[in-house]
Amino acid sequence: MVAWTDFERATIKDIFSKIDYEVVGPAAISRFLIVYPWTQRYFAGFGNLYNAAVVMQGLEKVVKNMDNIKATFTELSTLHSEKLQVDPDNFMSCSFDCLAIVVAAQLGKDFTPEVHAAFQKFLAVVVSSLRRQYY
Asked: Which residues form the Globin domain (predicted)?
């Protein structure tokens, strides 16, 4: 279980209330697939990943259930580890770094070092949850 400070909890909720999903979702996925082209093989059957609703739906669910992120991602973790056999290093070093860059660009000066640290902690917890089935 993750210990969230009041600041972290409020910051994560604030970030997700401010970002424009129609911009962030497709921009993060586009950046991810362009910067890390080898990851495209994992998404061949997913259809249009540039649809913000598809991309951001999972993260919205997590923000609503921050106290039990691992349970929220159990099914997705199993899918990634057993069926898709995704390299778990892709989670943080690729996909969530791209998301952090896009969110930072959208929030601009509001993405302070303290906000960045809270967001990175949130992403690290999500990554840990996705990696759970690998070990």
From this structure: 3-135
**pLDDT, tens digit, 9 for 90 and up, residues 27-81:** 887 787 778 777 766 665 555 555 555 555 655 655 666 666 566 656 655 665 5
Domain ranges of the chain: 6-131
Q: What is the CATH number of domain 6-131?
A: 1.10.490.10
> By the 8 A CB rule, do 84 and 10 touch?
no
CA dihedral in degrees (23, 87, 63, 27; nearest 10)? Answer: 0
d(CA 65, CA 55): 18
